[in-house]
Design a protein that fits this description.
Distance between the termini: 24 Å
Number of strands: 0
Oligomer: single chain
Radius of gyration: 21 Å
Largest sheet: none
Order of helices and strands: HHHHHH
């Protein structure tokens, strides 16, 4: 695996971490129209049923910029005819934002895809190579057209 392919994997995984760290709740317009819940007893106020869930820190603006650059643009460089390869790359980029552990280890991904984990690894490498070649083609076409475009969408 080349350094460029390792760079692509690192960017994909960073985008996956950012995606998983994004808040799943936020202000909703209907909130202003509802009455807030009132604590009726001391047991409601101090019960452990509402204990806070450990969450990853909110992503930085740079993390979100990288995620927007990479997802879904880079993954869509893998053609639809290779949907299995695309799915493997998408599953593999999901990395838990707190632990840094892949949500789909190779063997588990092999079970999900009904194939040997070595086959999953080969298809993942194939997908990364397709993304690399697609980005290289974009970069080369940008320079040939005189725009000096960087690797952006």
């Amino acid at each position: 695996m080349t350094a460029s392919e390792e760079y692509i994997i690192a960017r994909l995984e960073r985008a996956g971490k950012t995606l998983l760290a994004m808040p799943d709740k936020g202000y909703k317009p209907g909130l202003a129209q509802r009455q807030h819940e009132i604590v009726r007893s001391i047991w409601d106020a101090f019960s452990w049923t509402n204990a806070p869930v450990l969450r990853a820190p909110a992503p930085t603006m740079e993390d979100i910029r990288v995620m927007d650059e990479v997802l879904p643009d880079w993954v869509l460089l893998i053609p639809e005819s290779k949907v299995e390869v695309r799915r493997i790359v998408q599953c593999r980029l999901m990395v838990h934002p707190l632990s840094g552990v892949h949500m789909y280890p190779w063997r588990r991904l092999g079970e999900v895809m009904h194939m040997d984990y070595k086959g999953v690894q080969r298809r993942h490498a194939q997908g990364i190579k397709i993304i690399y070649e697609g980005l290289l083609k974009r970069l080369t076409n940008g320079y040939e057209n005189g725009s000096g475009a960087e690797m952006r969408h």
